[in-house]
Design brief:
This protein is an alpha/beta fold. It is about 45% helix and about 15% strand. Bound molecules: N-(furan-2-ylmethyl)adenosine 5'-(dihydrogen phosphate).
Length: about 150
Amino acid sequence: MKIYFAGSIRGGRDDQKVYVEIIEHLKNMGTVLTEHICNDLAEMGEEEKTDDWIFNRDMDWLNVSDVLVAEVTTPSLGVGYEISKAESLGKPVICLFRNFGTKSLSAMIGGNKDLNVYRYVDIKDALKYLDSFFEQLMRSQFATASKVING
Ligand code: 6K6
């Protein structure tokens, strides 16, 4: 399972610690292609890369990923773009929004029934939601694969 995790970078880094928890959890379920999002990007040399290079690398990863998991509490143009792109590529999308009262989720995300939007207060609930979503996803991938093999 190749997982594309999306989280705000230039939109603001307030939720970096939450990204760490989600990514650590996702690593039990597959390969997180964008693990660097929870790290200090300056330390990883990400800031020296050109926007062109970053865009092309991230779009290549999105193309090969099986699922997009986005943490959408901190609004980010890049994350919004990635959600829309994943949706048009037919990838399953999960959007996690931390409901703590001061921020409200864009209607373009919250109002889209094709995105699996989960509002949480406690991060543990978000991780449990991911567990059940991935279990279902793997079951349906297994069913599709056996249909192809067995006809
Ligand atoms: C470091 C500091 C400033 O810029 C950087 C390097 N930039 C990026 N590195 C890796 N992925 C990026 C970068 N900028 C955007 N992305 C992608 O868009 C990631 O996959 C994120 O999910 C999303 C964040 O978009 P913004 O608009 O919040 O930056």
